[in-house]
Amino acid sequence: MQRVARLVTRRHPLLQLRQAASSAPESPSTSSPSSSSTSTSSSSVVASTRMESLLTGDVPVEKRSLTRGLAMNKFEKDFMIYPEYTDTDDLRNIEGFVKVLHETLERSVDERALEKAGELSADVIAALRTSEISGCFIPREYGGLGLNYKDLMRINEELSIDWSVATHSTVSHMVSSLLLLYGTEAQKERYLPAIASGKCRPAISFPTAVGALTSSAEVHGTSVSGLDGTLMTQNVKAYGADKANLLLAFAYVKDASKVLSLRCFIIDRPAMGEGEKWETKREETLGLRAVDVSRVTLAAAVTEQSVLGDSGKEVASEALSCTRMPLSAAAVGYGKRVLEDIARIANETESQITPGLSLASHSHIHRIVSQLSLQLYALESVVYYLAGLLDEKLPVVVDVESALLHRLTREFLRSCTTALLEILGTRAVDSRELFEKRIRDVATLMALFDESDAVEQVAMTTMSTWTARQGKQSRGYSTLRRLLGAEKTMADLRDPKLQHFIAEHAHPSLQLACQELEHSMVRLDAVLAKLLNTEGKQVLVDYQSLERLVKVLENNLVMVCTIARASRSYSIGLRNADAELAWTTWLATERSRESWLHLNELSDYFGLIRLNSSLLKSGRSVLEWGGYQIESPMERNW
């Protein structure tokens, strides 16, 4: 408890950012990309107008947004400094806290027992409460610890000891973050201390269909605003609702003008009156069986004081966004455990191909482990880089970066599953082994936190900023000028010239990596100019082209974070820093070349050689046919 006391810090960063955003248009934002549609916008974070307002004005875009600046071939040297703890005592305190948490979880968590019971055990709940995990996300003035983002990421690494534990904590973090960002002072004072102490078990529901069942979530209002009345939900997906006593429920409200709008309501279970209903039906999921995923049916009285935030769409978007970094940090912890297990088994298992040698001597094992280790290094670098930026309270927007981080996390979790299957073989799917259970947990986790529209959001947001900042220069281009510009685009792709000399701001050993980053920046800016000037409307509806663009943005983000990290590690003499230099150089080279390939394909969008399979409309054809209807190569028509 003394360690916990020393961890109590200043006001929570989320609260500081939110208050700054409400008082000045030039304030930072931690939200994810805004949505481009009305019905599929649940994974966006804030309205585009609010986000773009942070990027307008006299401040250069490269000082506001790392990824947007790189896309426009603009560089801010401050982003090459990897964020770190400025006070050694803060680092030592969180290390001590995490050590105690690790030991506590090791004693209390039994993965098999949790899955069999279908819920977290009393020992696990007590361990989380003793460690004040729910309070980690809440500011001190509301009874929490008010830890910074780097602390939270380190804690979430340990919570990955079991994905059910990590998911349970993520739901608590989601609800407390939404209350902190959008709640009134009365709502914060009432609910946040209860969550921090563990007395309140929060849950959240979204108005989405579950399987083939029809779901609904509406408020039958009795006032002009439509906010006073009875909230009625049926078969709505919810997380943690069975044993919860506080629920954030999203529902559609029809006001006096008969316009439907999504709003978020706080349902206090102990305060529900006679005749009101709170019923849940547990879902049988493939994995995460200790996590309460259910369908909830509600009939609860609500008032305007029950409403959370002004826009339910914005609150729902933030709900998904605020889970990205904690889950990414948990994926880092999970990946480290996977690699430890693989290394142990590979060193202990005798090779069936070469007697007398271990499995670890096989070159194909080296390849798999190498690829997974590099992915983990990239993911870890991005997680703590973004956490550090938020801790320093820099006036930056990290909406695009958080969405790219989510993509990196999903890709890494898929790679973990593939590595386990390829190296362990049937042992990975043996129901007597924990590996099989963990693979099911990861599959379920990815299904629960799916954000399939993130590609469109990231691409649209980036192109919108690019057009607003640089598009004015291209207006009024003649056909001749476009033809001359096409030659410059091809020259930039073939032989990009250094303009920023990024290597001057990193360790000399990383010169090649810095050059690869700068080459990718030049190529991306050139291709964006060509696409948006010639094929803008077509590209906006072409998912494959948008996905290629997002992959390039993702590669640029990884290069910046790993270069900054490796440069710092070697400069201060960290253990295995020489390996970091080699890994970073390889990552930068591989990702830059991958980006070059994607950008070449984008630059020849309607070339004679169709490099874009989506232009064939093969996917749409298969859907219209009702399946794969190409005739067998053995078929005859006579």
Automatic annotation (TrEMBL):
Domain annotation Acyl-CoA dehydrogenase/oxidase C-terminal: ranges: 311-444
Top-level taxon in the UniProt lineage: Eukaryota
Pfam family, one: Acyl-CoA_dh_1
Keywords, alphabetical: FAD, Flavoprotein
InterPro entries reported in the protein's UniProt record: Acyl-CoA_Oxase/DH_mid-dom_sf, AcylCo_DH-like_C, AcylCo_DH/oxidase_C, AcylCoA_DH/ox_N, AcylCoA_DH/ox_N_sf, AcylCoA_DH/oxidase_NM_dom_sf
Domain Acyl-CoA dehydrogenase/oxidase N-terminal: start-end pairs: 101-199
Region (Disordered): 15-49
Membrane-crossing residue ranges in chain numbering: none
Presence of the UniProt keyword Flavoprotein in the record: yes
Biased composition annotated in UniProt, kind: Low complexity: 20-49
GO molecular function: acyl-CoA dehydrogenase activity; flavin adenine dinucleotide binding
Family, as annotated: Belongs to the acyl-CoA dehydrogenase family.
Name by which UniProt lists this protein: Uncharacterized protein
Originating species: Pristionchus entomophagus
